[in-house]
Amino acid sequence: MHDIHIIGGGLAGSEAAWQLAEAGLRVRLSEMRGGGDNTPAHESDRLAEMVCSNSFRSDDAENNCVGLLHQEMRRLDSLILREADRHRVPAGSALAVDREAFAAGVTSAIEAHPNIAVVRERIDALPAHPTIIATGPLTCSGLAAAIAAETGSDALAFFDAIAPIVHLDSIDMSVCWKAARWDKGGDDYINCPLTRDEYHAFVEALRQGEKTEFKEWEKDTPYFEGCMPIEVMAERGVETLRFGPMKGVGLDDPRTGRWPYACVQLRQDNALGTLWNMVGFQTKLRHAEQVRIFRTIPGLQNAEFARLGGIHRNSFIRSPELLDSELRLKSRPNIRFAGQITGCEGYVESAAVGLLAARFAIAEQRGETLAALPVETAIGALLNHITGGATAQSYQPMNVNFGLMPPLPSRFRKADRKKAFTDRARGAFDVWLADQRETIPA
Question: Which of these CATH numbers, 2.40.160, 2.40.30, 2.20.25, 2.30.29, describes 161-313?
Fold first, then answer.
């Protein structure tokens, strides 16, 4: 017997299961991977597998909204942040992890918890008992059809692309050098410099390279701006990449003492430092084209790829229309949604919404009410965006950002505004947490 059923063992489902179990509730966690099914993007049956990148982005809680979100989740005893901190790898001011060790750590913690039963099974219908659906953007067709039938509308969709990973020993370090932009983080990134001619030749190769062809039903699906394929950016203009993932500013090439015209950065992907992720290089190029074109990058002429890039279709629901303020499906209040299927974007955002869904469910099981989180906090702003901060018609996937929070008084100088947002958020979070001591699980 269980008190709460969770469908989906990604970051949101794993976080939700942990929060519920730590509060003393019995959890059945259903995960189809490992039970005979898989997705087009996953490579293992581990819980909380990170597919696109190994980075949780900035860990700066003073000047960055996602760093603030990290801080708030740590204060709420997040399993995902705990394991991320345990398995972090150098990445400047970002929180990046050894993705295999991280997923193994989460899986071990979940499977060892006495209040959690992990069942490798596929769920194709909406349960009648208390449930959190955290199936992510690759929800199986049966459950997706059940959700569509219940809500009376099709899920929205977008494409998400995966960046390649390169073996360190195949990178020519006589051409590349290690450094972080503006020297923030020491030598946490490998930098591959391009001259003007090399850059323009590379952009043209991206434009001409053979791409993955989409099925008919995929052709009108929009990309999420935060995960745009590199060749799609190239098609927007010859200088687009040089002001995006290939910008050379803040990187002093030790051979010239100057910034390169353009630069490709690689970020460490595992604790051993043997694998490096091409930052911002999500792609829908065919695999043979990736090898051919990416080997024209100086320093990567002999690159060996541990994984090539790819693309998959992500789906999410019209949350502002379908969910209430506690992430419950309005037509079926026994069901909550969490993670990327709600339309939040990003690993840490997905885990945060899983944490929230669990905390709301815990309060409900106890006959209590969890007070709304202040919209001035990172978690509260994210929840507000999902459940009412945007119209259903214009709703799109969104990373947490200061733009989701109420504006600051105009008296703050532009240089001080980010710090002002985080100071205000911490104050609001402190007050909310103190008021919820009886409801928030220890």
Answer: 2.40.30
